[in-house]
Amino acid sequence: MAPHTDRYVPANTNAGWGFATLVLLLTAALIVMAIVVHKSTYKPPTDVTWHGKGSGDAAPVGDLGE
Question: pTM value?
């Protein structure tokens, strides 16, 4: 009978932590960026400086909602 050859190869499953950390940091940065842009540019519908199309109000200078 032939001698037994051990064929067990241990799995290297801890190699993806760096990439996972990069993805999480990128996601957090994009969320922060979206919040900052939203806070600096959002105007609620009840804002007195908002002018609706066809309302007869004078639109602010540089308004593109023609």
Answer: 0.56
Residue 55 CA to residue 66 CA, distance in Å, equals 12
Residue 40 has pLDDT above 70, yes or no: yes
Kindly write down the DSSP assignment for every residue of 25-54, as one continuous string: HHHHHHHHHHHHHHHHH---TT-TT---TT
Cβ–Cβ under 8 Å, residues 57 and 47: no
Cα 2 to Cα 5, 28, 46, distances in angstroms: 9, 57, 85
The rounded distance, in Å, linking the Cα atoms of 33 and 44 is 20
What's the count of helices (H) and strands (E) in the chain, helices before strands? 1, 0
